[in-house]
TrEMBL record, chains A, B, C, D, E, F:
GO terms for molecular function: delta(3,5)-delta(2,4)-dienoyl-CoA isomerase activity. It is found in: Peroxisome. The keyword Membrane does not apply. It comes from the Eukaryota. Transmembrane segments: none annotated. NCBIfam families: PRK06142.1 (NF004794). This is Delta(3,5)-Delta(2,4)-dienoyl-CoA isomerase, mitochondrial. Pathway: Lipid metabolism; fatty acid beta-oxidation. It catalyses: (3E,5Z,8Z,11Z,14Z)-eicosapentaenoyl-CoA = (2E,4E,8Z,11Z,14Z)-eicosapentaenoyl-CoA; (3E,5Z)-octadienoyl-CoA = (2E,4E)-octadienoyl-CoA.
Length: 308, 308, 308, 308, 308, 308
């Protein structure tokens, strides 16, 4: 199983000892330095596996997590050896959401001399947390998220920022925020309605905080695949990741950039952007290499594309 | 069954004798003063039930209806004793849509000295009718609509402006407008495509005016729940309403405001608005009360939240 | 079977010998002059049938096709005898997508003295190809697309620009572009996410280029009807087209214009546009004619609406 | 001097005894019933003159003012006898801005059980005050504002919502809000940058709260005319108003609607809206009447246009 | 004076006998075939001069004009020998605007069986006329417009779609439309407020239809240069055109595309588009050639840039 | 002259030895560690002075500059001791723009295996450079820029991102980019048209690259103040900065945030954002303190506002 440190990492003079990670997914029993909440590995060539890894805390999102996500995905964005990301949770469930205990000071006791100043600081904190998941979108590599067991509160914010969602048969999802007295503010209210097709269902989930199980998640389109158990799901996720990684990175990453662009713009604007994007991106060897593979009926896995 | 007049109503010096309504849902056999087309009651604490109530006219939407809706939902928006609204139709069906006979003068014989002036007046009339359903969205309290029997023409405009849709097994929906020679102009063409996930289906319904029955309505996401009959549906609607009403109104109403905001803005804009919204809204006792209830495993129904 | 040359065609002094087409759909065995890739006929009064017709080349989209589509739909937009369009493919499958061989020079060997100039020319080419499908949206008449067999690459771009999609049980769809080294740039990435409700599925299709079969296409909402075979589908498409063609063209075409407008604007903006649109469009005899037919329980097929 | 009560006023059953106003502008020494802060008159046929009229309080904007403006301009919008509005201030200056003393409770002691609830109420109050000036824009009749002496704080918010600004040589303008500890929130920050051409100047005015005098106001484009004194200015304003009032109301009011629309939309969107607007508005007798007057070299003042 | 037929023109097999034009600007005494209202010449290398040329009709815009403008600017957009356009009017004034007599049928007697159908046709006509000036913006080459004498009605619509405006001392401008009973609908209301900095002035001009003379046009920013007479202005325009034509066409035309893009988008969106644009456009030899010329203190007129 | 290290700087554990800077503006003869291109000082309480400081290189923007600007303004944004920024250039002129020699590798020899990959890298570089000036806008403190001598190319990009512009009588401005073969891509084309009122002038400057001198810069609104020489200008800038710094930071910074927000949104959206912003920001002691100072006719300089 190949593993090469990204030159981008090295250029920045960062010390990123992913050594444990090299041994692959199954053996990574805990957080990997320098991250304390994320375990990062390369199970398959060109595929990065990121695992939220606080199993003893039900993968609750603590202060470190919010910061490490930004670092992790910024590095992945720059890592030309990575073409696809698989994201999952270690232990018995995907995530129990925000770690209220560990973050009480930020949320429940914000700083400031008067209400205006407290608000000012609260806003900056929220914006920072929002960025934690927006980095997933800004990273041009497709992110497949694989959910097992519970995916609660902040977990839903996280998965709606990913590109492809799959889950196990025992998975359930819960937009929990109203139950703890707040409107969800790090992405669910903004992204969930764009991710599934039934607005009545989105509203029901957000207002009642009820659980949604795997079958409903599949039929409403939140996930596009359901697997019998975590092992099967991870195999499925890695297989899909490997498949995507075998294709031209110019094609795949251009696709992600334009899919996200078009979500937030009119069709006319998005078409214009697309033509301006592809006016240079069509000038790639990958086009010829891919076309030739197609004509020769070769698998793209046999083709070597330059790094991007 | 508790019922308290909204102080907001009283402060405004409005005389709102909802007396008949007090007796609750089942007993309200007809329109309630001062409304002639709407019956308003409080079947459950903090839940307002609004019923379109012209059963002898198949709940057709006449001139009075268009005006009364605005008054009714403006009052509900201000009524701090109401946290959730259930909307349904009296009699055998939800609504047969616009009352063509009763409104012919407005639509078929508009006023004006020349085409330009007639058009000017027609535009104002349409804008006024559009407002009739937009008030449902502007009201920050979740609105659950429960449909039985037929929901035709203007009825579809109405329900797409509600937050959660449910129906009985015998319900059917019809975007009727093309059949009477006009493009639907009070909301269906604008909201239906954002409410269900299949654009091909939206177009088919709008161009053919065919009926869609409960099962298809459920599978396409127009409704999120189907009940065997009206009684079961009303019980289900009230239960869901009660559930939502038990949660922090700061959380629930902030959720509605931001869900609607995010529908009409880019994700980046909507996240920015969200953080600006929550910078003050997180400074609520509800957060602590809710968090404590969660830790003590108490039901939120045991918690008393201040009015909003 | 009625067939009348559009007066709009004649006024423009265009020589449009649709003679073969007159004989109707089943007999049209090949491309019709002056089009070499499209066969155009009028199988039913007020319904235009456009068929992509290069069966020996698996209906691959060659240079002529991209230009002829623009001409064809511009003419249809002006043809007041046409109220609905049915689009399908001749031969064994709908389309195999872009004709790479036939278009290699445009795409693989663009002109220009340096990278900037090549890019400039590539951008114009892409924009021109995008226009090929955007004309379908700009044409105010509903376009029903009927897919059998394969619908690959450019075929998906094409069908997402149509209004109603139906397919046969043996149909399959493939967003093929990443497999040939490019991000899809003539509409799929912009329109597919607005056409079906599951974003996870959209992304999966776009990143993996896997095939999607009829059942999944139906359950995700890409198509709204599935038929056992092509014959049944064409009959179904023509029946639906005839149904739509029987309704007021003012109502139907105003509906299309506003459905597309509302896709790209906020609800508030789209409502405003709608009222400005209908201030004149309600001043039509069609309203009275339709209302009267409704009251007399006549079929709209018995009513004669003026041309539009 | 002609004066006719608007039939719109009468139809609504409102008792609007503008009797003092009839005597014209100069003699109106105080507020006119039923308004306590506004004096409304018709100095010239088809021209409504609205005067902020609390001279003993330097025309400070008190609670009544904020409400009365909405009523006043809503009535004007419906009043088909009015085609143009002139707005000015009674006494020694235009306005000293918000009446802090009279409004302290709203602003300094807002209601609510916790910060979230206080904020909720504050937001509603601000939105209501914003509406006070937005009604000026929503009223389709051109509003000419004539400023003399001081125009401070809320006064700048007000005038930026008007269509044409003129002032006396002794006038000065001050974006005062930062000096009392708040960001201007009823329109200045939103409209001033769209009203004058130098963003550096806008920022300087908003950050320093310095006074700007008539000459600078003219050279930067805030006002388009400067007059030696109030008498000359009022004569100039009424002359311009009379001029505008003599033209087709279909043309003039359509111009205002589209000028404001185009401010907030792209050029492409605004052109589309314009064509949809004029498709009916060109079907007016006014076009023929105006064209004929032009050919016969008659003044438009000799032409009688139907009311709008 | 150099003159080379555009290869683009020839490639398209169009017969464009600009023979009269060859003799240059001053000698072109009338319309040039195949255009009947426009005279097109190449007075300076890489500069196209377009002249509206119906001096005996005060350059009024007749039916032919509206069509020819589209053809003319579409050809210029494709003509790689043209880098800059100068637009002016033949005879005593720039243009008296729309030729009401010649176009009465389109505007005053539109076709259609009922109001809706008439409106439908009117809308298409307006859209077509709007396109007449929008082509100026879509043409990526800078267009300098030189105005002498009167510029009335449609003339203002035209010049606001140009990039650089200059005029003679005796020029005046008039937004004439309200005087003939309509809201200006081919661009003035959409573009004028984005072209000059004083909104009060824009409104005054549009509501009163008063004349604005050269000095005010300069001080408000409508024109950026005023010349004593037409001869001096044409010399100035050609000099500026020659100056611009000497620079890299990749740089100049990319500048126009992005200036117009940024007018209609947020700064963030426009910056993103800019970087996507320049990612290929910086890969031009022009950069090196220009940099070298700068270092060697050569004039750009000595540099030969490839055609674009 | 007071100078206090920002606690924000210290909290972050950054070593920021602004020692030379302490001695104030006039004595700072060169770049200050850890910045090599920027000199940062605190000449007046709560005012940060940032000076581009490569006088021997005519303040050309080299690689270090682009990075240091981001660090510098990010720190200023967090520095609660700073309320206003003054930006100027050391030595004989403001800046000669981009340091072509020092940056040739980035711009002229970008990395990548094919055109697509080179473009990908170029885009990231441009985006990074754009961020260099966007940080000025994201910093909520007003930035006054003081220009003397030349302001060329990148200098114009920089100053258009500042809030208030002033210059000396001998200053000149030049949008230089077309002269070196590229469209300006780090902000000028996006911001300049929003900063001055004459679009004709913007275009002329961008297409011709001609110099604009102080008087024209003042009359077109690019700068709002012109001073006889640099000494007078710096005194004026610091005086204005001190004035702004004396006001409530809640008011001033909220003003900046909303002015920039409103530039990129419709008036309606911007008003909504404003009310959502101020619902908490009005709950500040600054309001009471400022109001009291106003009533007691005290200068705000005597008031102590809490830090923000």
């Amino acid at each position: 199983m190949a593993f090469v440190f990204s030159s981008a990492f090295r250029k920045q003079g960062l010390f990123v000892p992913f050594l444990n990670a090299v041994r692959g997914m199954s053996s990574s029993g805990g957080p990997t330095p320098p991250f304390t909440t994320l375990s990062v590995s390369r199970p398959v060539d060109a595929v990065t596996h990121v695992e939220i890894c606080r199993p003893e805390k039900r993968n609750a999102m603590n202060k470190a997590f919010w910061l490490e996500m930004v670092d992790c995905f910024s590095q992945i964005a720059e890592d030309s050896d990575c073409r696809v990301v698989v994201f999952s949770g270690a232990g018995k469930l995907f995530t129990s959401g925000i770690d209220l205990m560990g973050m009480a000071s930020d949320i429940l006791q914000p700083d400031g001399d008067d209400t205006a100043r407290i608000s000012w600081n609260v806003r900056r904190t929220i914006a920072k947390y929002q960025e934690t998941f927006s980095v997933i979108e800004k990273c041009p590599k497709p992110v497949i998220v694989a959910v097992h067991g519970a995916c609660i509160g902040g977990g839903v914010d996280l998965i709606t920022a990913c590109d492809i969602r799959m889950c196990t048969q025992d998975a359930w999802f819960q937009v929990k925020e109203v139950d703890i007295g707040l409107a969800a503010d790090v992405g669910t209210l903004q992204r969930l309605p764009r991710v599934i097709g039934s607005r009545s269902l989105v509203n029901e989930l957000a207002f009642t905080a009820r659980k949604m199980y795997a079958d409903e998640a599949k039929s409403c389109g939140l996930v596009s695949r359901v697997f019998p158990d975590k092992e099967a799901m991870m195999a499925g996720a890695l297989e899909m990741a490997g498949e995507i990684a075998s294709k031209s990175p110019v094609a795949v990453q251009g696709t992600k950039v334009n899919l996200i662009y078009s979500r937030d713009h009119s069709v006319a604007d998005a078409l214009d952007y697309m033509s301006t994007w592809n006016m240079s991106m069509l000038q790639t060897q990958d086009l010829m290499k891919s076309a030739q593979a197609a004509m020769e009926k070769k698998s793209l896995k046999e083709i070597i594309f330059s790094k991007l």
